Amino acid sequence: MEINRDKVFKVLNPNRVWLPILFGLGIVFFLFYNDDEISAAKLQMIFHASFWPVLFAFLVLIARDVGYIYRIRQITGKKLTWKNSLFVIILWEFASAVTPSIVGGTAAAVFIMMKEKIPFGKSLAYVMLTAILDNLFFVVMAPIALFIAWHQLFPESSALQSQIGNSIQYIFVISYLLIAFYTAIMAYAVFIKPRGFKWLLLKITSYRFFRRWRTAANEQGNEIILASSELKGHSKRYWFKICAATFFIWSARYAMVNCLIAAFANINFADHLLIFGRHIIMWIIMLISPTPGSSGTAEFFFIPFFKEFLGDYTIVTSLFWRMMSYYPYLILGALFLPHWIKRRFIK
């Protein structure tokens, strides 16, 4: 089983940084065009941010990336050095940033780890494991957030909300159910019945309408079996470390928005919890975005979810958030990729 190198490099092409940037700029232009109050003076409001919350936002961002590096190193049983783990995470984030969120950079991540001398089966297993753990965070945390503050998590009073009605709730429910279903299927296939999952795929593709995908289903089934065998036999300490790292990573990712909002508004502890919960809901909606790295979708939904706290600072905070959490990975990926190719392909 091999990964198509040409397809992977097409995803990792540094020139692709322009696509999500254009998506993001397009939606920002749309928002500006439809807001008569937007002006150059309002854009300069980004400089009104308080210093300490912004500094904390940067520290949280760095902590999140360190968490990613730590987790991939632990998942691989420390087969990756700290330096190699850094390359894997930066390039993985870059691949995710230039592909639709619903697709992600899975194939590219497997290829990158293989070039870091992790065998195919282990690389596939590790990438699938991270996907399952990440999705489990959303599946578990979203109901907790809804239970605590159901009536406050979905925005009610905003221009955008008045235009789309209850669509945010519907989109969330559809996205959550898709993620929960996918995670349950993958967890069952990887941890419980990998051969049974392959049998099911072959059974489905035995019908005439699905027969064209039978070869792909057979390959997918073999990959699941291989990944499952690679994940057996780990200690409880192993699972605790990677689960704790996953919780830390996503909590840090969401906390950055709390910091940025605190830089422009006076918010209390209850507000922080509500913002954290809303970010979870918003992120689940973003996961089914068809645009590269949810570019445009993120900016679009940020306004109704957080305008209640930010008022006139909403759009500049949205831009600040994306400049810190998304666009740096496009730049870092474009910078790291040539060096990584030189290390791994040019002797």
Global structural class: mainly alpha
Span of the ends, CA to CA = 25 Å
Which percent bin holds the helix content?
A: over 70%
Silhouette: globular
What Rg is obtained from the alpha carbons, in whole angstroms? 21 Å
Give an overview of the whole structure.
The protein has 347 residues and is mostly helical. The chain is built from 16 helices and no strands. The protein has helices at 5-12, 18-33, 40-43, 51-75, 82-97, 106-115, 120-153, 159-164, 167-192, 194-204, 214-230, 236-264, 269-286, 297-310, 314-325, 327-345. Helix 5 (82-97) runs antiparallel to helix 6 (106-115), helix 5 crosses helix 16 and helix 12 runs antiparallel to helix 15. The protein is globular and about 60 Å long. The two termini are 25 Å apart.
